[in-house]
Amino acid sequence: MSSRRRSAGRRAEVLDAAGEVVAARGADATRFSDVTAATGVGVSTLQYYFGTREDMLVAVFRHAAQRDFDLVRERLAPLTDPRERLLAIATHLTGAVGSDTTWRLWVESWRWASRDPGVRADVLADYRGWHELIAAEVEAAGGEDPMTTARLILALIDGLALPVVLGDPELTRAAAQRLLAGGLTRLLGPTAPAF
Amino acid sequence: MSSRRRSAGRRAEVLDAAGEVVAARGADATRFSDVTAATGVGVSTLQYYFGTREDMLVAVFRHAAQRDFDLVRERLAPLTDPRERLLAIATHLTGAVGSDTTWRLWVESWRWASRDPGVRADVLADYRGWHELIAAEVEAAGGEDPMTTARLILALIDGLALPVVLGDPELTRAAAQRLLAGGLTRLLGPTAPAF
Amino acid sequence: MSSRRRSAGRRAEVLDAAGEVVAARGADATRFSDVTAATGVGVSTLQYYFGTREDMLVAVFRHAAQRDFDLVRERLAPLTDPRERLLAIATHLTGAVGSDTTWRLWVESWRWASRDPGVRADVLADYRGWHELIAAEVEAAGGEDPMTTARLILALIDGLALPVVLGDPELTRAAAQRLLAGGLTRLLGPTAPAF
Amino acid sequence: MSSRRRSAGRRAEVLDAAGEVVAARGADATRFSDVTAATGVGVSTLQYYFGTREDMLVAVFRHAAQRDFDLVRERLAPLTDPRERLLAIATHLTGAVGSDTTWRLWVESWRWASRDPGVRADVLADYRGWHELIAAEVEAAGGEDPMTTARLILALIDGLALPVVLGDPELTRAAAQRLLAGGLTRLLGPTAPAF
DNA sequence: TATGAATGAGAGTTCATTCAT
DNA sequence: GATGAATGAACTCTCATTCAT
């Protein structure tokens, strides 16, 4: 019992650390030994926990996606104004420490998804989850055609994240945040109040 | 001379084919032998052409980026109306066969750029090139703050490309094109004429 | 007591099943997990019963040799005519279902015996046991030089078993049995009555 | 050219040495590294020559079978009397240095054949080759029913080889040779002249 | 008595690369 | 200019085994 619980906790810790490794090195370049170096957990133990290397990567993707979603929900909890909530979702990009990790992992997931049907299903489901989350806020904010707008907003967020994470010197995080706020205003349409 | 020219032609052909391989398998998973299988050119010959495997990948990225840019310019040539030109750039995404290859290679480049300073410089320069191309059209179309708008437009394009290439069943190419057109209108601001 | 007896019974069952596995896969290729799959008994339990993997294999060999001997004795019990008894021993090869298992295990034992002194001693003792069993019948049948003849007969049986078990299409079981009967007649000498 | 020829020669040498290793350790237990230790040829070179480990083992079997057959033919060449020739074939068992290797490899082949259809076909073809070789001599020696007799003789040879190779203390090589000579006389029938 | 968790050792295989031609 | 032969490095994976319960 207690060993099983300890084991489960250990597994989750390993998943977190492995996520950092995958974000830093890329999924293809992540070896068992890299995760071992980052965690102190032996290679065979990783295999015991996760199975093959690819199984481990998939587990990392799922875990990271779940954490990301949970994190945003947490941030959203204290906010009630839909416009504030939208902005909170959007600036999830620029805010937290580790958000680079989040975006890198998202790209890694996307890449993996394009070759693995199981991961594709996961990623598309996550994608849909984000759409719905955003669409609900758009609707509450009085925006027209919530799903369409939500798609545009999410595309904008994703598309801005890429150069930010890449470290485009012309696009600091602050600049990105301003761009994002401005873009939201435009996308929500002329009738929506500006942020 | 003629053999050098023939050689250069062969190299370019190999780069095209290698680009397809990289798009299909991912850069990390692209082995010399995969390119050999796709081209009939022996492993040693690839090394003779490009050097190490990573050199080859970088050459593929540069070649693909150049081709992409050239292709858009070509498509833009017959168009004069800035709004039409903008839309042509934007729907570069949805149109041609092989655009999946383009977008996949873009993601591969982005990933490689995260870890290789040389590639990062290339990718950021390309990025800037696209911004300027778009900004010029925004300005010609009478949009305000062309660079800001250009960044938003490019982000929208990139952000929409991802689910399209991943094959999101809720986002057909036609739907993406409509979204894109709508998004452009909104981003260019209420004063800009609708597309 | 009862649990010990149950345990001993379980161990014997496991040995039977493990024998099948060894015959099918070969001793070297027999993993604990193969036996687990065949018996439902966990790996650790197998180790608890037998010790190391090699200990288990040796136990399988001894068990199988014993069973084989017991089985032949059983078949011999109702027969009194030495010639019939000899033929019964000889055709132990062609008769029963499961005789493939027997012969395969014999080859596996032989191979193991080549490298393990303990198993070699067991196998040579078994070998001697068969010789004596056969020699007694040869003597009773009036054959000359019983031990020599017994050796020849046993060699003939072993030598015929190999292609039969291998599934030589030119040597059906029926053909093997006829060959064996003919061979016995010749080996027992011209003065012995034909079978 | 010369490098290719050198390569072919090296390959054959390696096959000889690998045959010794397989005979000594058993096929299943033969690792690339064992052959490396025996030959000085690196593991990857072995793989370059043969492919997978199993491919190497199969190559060893074929090579050994061919060599064995060639060797007997060589020994047969100077002999004309069919009875002498038969005895030469039969005592192929006891004679040469390395005959243990031959028999051990034969058992290894047999075992491999029982799980690999390709090897089974090879082994059965070899088996048939030996039958035909023996049958021709039986016929020349005036024996009746040459194929049947050949089968019995071959079985006797195989069946005697096993305990000899195992080192049965009651069956020295000299004793085995006497047994074999006696067995041949009996199997060829009372009308055939004794050896 | 029986079993799951964890782990180290060892093997096969892939692959880029070097060298010689 | 182009290519095949040979080889070392690195990685995944399997498996027996030990430990704790």
Salient structural properties:
homotetramer, DNA-binding, 0% strand, mainly alpha, Tetracycline Repressor, domain 2, 195 residues, 76% helix, 9 helices
Describe this structure in words.
The structure is a homotetramer of 195-residue chains. Chain A contains 9 helices and no strands. With 195 residues, the first copy, chain A, is mostly helical. Chain A has a single domain (2-188), classed as Tetracycline Repressor, domain 2 (Orthogonal Bundle). The longest helix of chain A has 24 residues, at 2-25. The first copy, chain A, is elongated, with a radius of gyration of 18 Å. The relative contact order of chain A is 0.10. The model of chain A has no long low-confidence stretch (mean pLDDT 88). Chain A binds a DNA duplex (21 and 21 nucleotides) through helix 1 and helix 3.
Proportion of residues in extended strands of chain A: under 5%
Q: How many whole angstroms does the radius of gyration of chain A measure?
A: 18 Å
Listing every helix as H and every strand as E from the N terminus to the C terminus, the arrangement of chain A reads HHHHHHHHH
> What's the level 1 CATH class of chain A?
Mainly Alpha
Instruction: Please name the CATH topology of chain A.
Output: Tetracycline Repressor, domain 2
